[in-house]
Design brief:
This protein is an all-alpha fold. The longest helix is centred in the middle third of the chain and has 44 residues. The radius of gyration is 21 Å and the shape is elongated. The model has no long low-confidence stretch (mean pLDDT about 90).
Length: about 230
Amino acid sequence: MTNQPETESGRDFAESLAAATPTPGGGAAAARVALLATSLVRMVTGISLQKMEGDSGSDATGAECRPAILEETGESATELAERFRTLEAADIAVFDNFMSALRLPKESEEEKTARKLALCDAAEKATNVPLDTLSACLEVFELIDNLLDAASIGAVRLGADSDLGAALEFSNAAFRAAELNIHANLSMLGGDPRLEALSTRYGALRERFEEDLPALRTRVLGWLKDH
């Protein structure tokens, strides 16, 4: 039994996304795309495990280690999938929270002050959700890199390895979509002391992304070319 929120089926989500309503929107879609990336990683680990069943070309120690590497990666991808499901639901919730703050009265000075604070609180929450999406997307990068590390030294035999490239590109798309929400939300925090910390966190994630993406993409393409 899980406490994770339920998410719509692919068809239902696509129709909800197409509706003339503000939610679900780009942030939720980013989390859904990243969720698909984790599914691809899990599929690769599953096929690779099947491919290695009955492999008698290695010693007992190697045979024991090989499935463990794949199983651990699959489990990590499953955990990430639950996080993306949570982030999808959270993105919808924080936008609704922001809209509630936007509708607060603003007649008196006290009301204006309270409304401004509520909007900043809502903007902070609405920024942290896509920031968490960026961080989780980078964890997908790590899973792909780890699988290639294991395969490059012969610790595993990968099956459906081209789908690691698809998982990478889905994560890339999710990252870029989520950061658009970050830009929009940070712009609402002008003058608020929380802006600096959020901007710093975003900058660090963005820097890592710009460093890791081209290197991992080159590595994936090189692997597919040679195998």
